[in-house]
Amino acid sequence: MPAVEQCISQLRPNQHNVHLQVKVIDWMVSVDATVEGTKQVVSEYLVADHSGCVMLRVTSPTRYHKDNWLEITGMHTQVMESSIRLVVEKPDQIILLASAPTDAAVNTNNNISFIEYSVHR
What we know:
The protein has one domain: CATH 2.40.50.140. The protein contains no helices and seven strands. By secondary structure, it is an all-beta fold. Strands 2-3-4-6-5 form a five-stranded mixed beta barrel. InterPro entries: NA-bd_OB-fold.
């Protein structure tokens, strides 16, 4: 199934194969984790597009910086502690763009990470 280009304000829990172009607003945290015996770096960033902003969780040793523009394909959404996150599990899902897209305005007022979701199991 091909990735569908979306915008942040349209994201909902448990979506898959999401494709976005986003601007890094801020780096939040990086931690070293061991997953299935392999050491990995997991980082979280606040990212935004024209419609809103959201937390992005990335498993990659690459560190992205404020004002970087990223094109991300094949990611999914996940609810963590009642808050939605974008999740990227493979570094090759992210392309660091050389320049900002033509519609480079971002909306940091609509932070969808603040919306509380309940997880039904």
